[in-house]
Design goal:
Elements lengths: L1 H6 L5 H20 L10 H20 L6 H34 L6 H33 L34 H21 L21 H21 L4 H5 L1 H30 L12 H5 L1 H34 L3 E6 L8 H14 L4 E4 L2 E4 L3 H14 L3 E6 L1 H12 L13 H8 L1
Helix pairs in contact: 2-3, 3-4, 4-5, 4-9, 5-11, 6-7, 6-11, 7-9, 9-11, 12-13, 12-14, 12-15
């Protein structure tokens, strides 16, 4: 590394000053808008800010400012602004598109989410003002002149963009129903991954060091964002504009219930990245030690846990219910005849395994005994069915539901409901769900 740097031309810190003055002017001018606490900004403002931050950060990196002690703190502050600008843009994007995502009426979460979102954006403005003041003080201490371009602050006021009328005629695409079922199945798998990582549970912590990176980290947030982005792409490619989107409200709503948590996870990714990269104990030095006070870490903790993750859970839970409703309405039920568990019938353990399989697939499955239907998602109902089967002395039972679910129930039955055998590899998810 040293050899490589020695072959590069060197610019003196004095000669670097006029270059920084020129390259930082637009960035600082945009950021200066927030010094007026009464000014209202919008998604266009945040988009412009992150674009200017990205340009300035690239310029500083090109000149090796992060490896120069004099310019390290200024460079870190520019990167911090970029992280908050990226996160803020995602939040504004959700607020702007919310009517398209969920609908204009009937969403009980709308008002609650809007109020909390604007509270968090006020916190972002406060943090960005602090970064701006620190940057101006730092760059002046290095000998640079700060000049601010005049900007019409009315440009950034919140505006709702009018929409063209929806005139696409829903057309039936090939395999549309199969695609919808596949999407609903993948949505449920994404929610399952979210829950397996403990992100649906209330996280109790008094500091960010308690949860980052042990419970929450950039890679996990990015993984959730990617999974949801893939679902959105699937919807837009195969379902959007189709007949089912026009006719079925639940099919139409699942895209919004994908997009909202996706954008929240992108915001989370940048906020967690900010902490991991610029504040954590691993890279602690005199420069990073100045940043926690500017970021107000207690509020950052609340933003991550009580806002972003909290509403990710709420919208994913809504989406999971919609996905289950879609599966139940689109899946064509069939029946299998399965043997009774030997030797004790449907007692607690086999009943529990059946419910875990039903929950995994998310579709309605019923056990039919003497003409009466019992919900396979309920252990209690299966125990009642087991009692009736014992009285009837039947050796087999009819189950009705989705073929995928029934195929797994048949595997379970072929292994005597794991009464005297291990859980088969094909049903390994039972073991995972049982241990959650």
């Amino acid at each position: 590394m040293e050899k490589t740097r020695s072959l590069s031309p060197i610019i003196s810190e004095e000669d670097f000053l006029p270059l920084v003055e020129e390259k930082s002017r637009d960035f600082l001018s945009i950021l200066n808008v927030l010094t007026d606490e009464k000014v209202a900004v919008n998604s266009v403002y945040y988009f412009t800010l992150m674009h200017e931050a990205d340009k300035l950060e690239s310029f500083l990196d090109d000149y090796g400012a992060r490896t120069n002690l004099r310019w390290l703190f200024f460079s870190e502050l520019v990167a911090c602004v970029r992280n908050f600008a990226l996160a803020g843009f995602q939040i504004y994007h959700i607020l702007n598109r919310y009517p398209d995502y969920i609908g204009k009426e009937g969403d009980q979460l709308l008002k609650e989410f809007q109020i909390r979102s604007y509270d968090e954006l006020e916190y972002f403005s406060l943090v960005l003002r602090g970064f701006y003041e620190a940057m101006v003080e730092e760059i002046k201490s290095l000998g640079a002149q700060v000049s601010i371009n005049p900007i019409d602050k009315g440009t950034w006021g919140f505006k709702v963009t009018p929409q063209l009328p929806y005139t696409i005629t829903g057309e039936l695409a090939s395999n549309e129903e199969e695609r919808i079922v596949s999407l609903a199945q993948e949505y449920r798998k994404t929610v399952k991954y979210f829950r397996q990582n403990g992100l649906d549970r209330k996280i109790k912590a008094t500091s960010l060091t308690e949860i980052i990176p042990a419970k929450i980290n950039e890679n996990l947030m990015a993984e959730m964002e990617i999974r949801l982005h893939n679902l959105q792409s699937e919807y837009d490619t195969y379902i959007r504009g189709g007949a089912q989107e026009k006719e079925n409200a639940e099919v139409a709503s699942i895209r919004g219930l994908t997009a909202i948590p996706m954008h929240l996870f992108e915001a989370l990714k940048w906020l967690v990245h900010f902490y991991e990269r610029h504040e954590n104990e691993i890279r602690k030095n005199d420069v990073t030690a100045k940043i926690p006070a500017l970021a107000q870490n207690e509020k950052l903790l609340s933003c991550i846990v009580d806002y972003c993750l909290h509403y990710c859970a709420k919208y994913l839970n809504q989406g999971n219910q919609v996905a289950e409703n879609i599966l139940s309405s689109f899946v064509k039920p069939i029946t299998y005849e399965l043997p009774i568990p030997r030797p004790h019938g449907f007692h607690a353990r086999p009943a529990t395994y059946i419910t875990l399989i039903a929950q995994e697939h998310g579709t309605e499955v019923n056990m039919i005994v003497n003409g009466e239907r019992f919900d396979c998602r309920s252990v209690l109902e299966l125990l009642q069915a087991g009692g009736m089967l014992a009285d009837l002395k039947d050796q087999t039972v009819i189950v009705e539901g989705d073929k995928r679910t029934l195929d797994d129930l048949k595997i379970l039955a072929d292994h005597n409901y794991c009464e005297d055998q291990d859980i088969p590899q094909e049903l390994s998810y039972i073991r995972i769900m049982r241990n959650l």
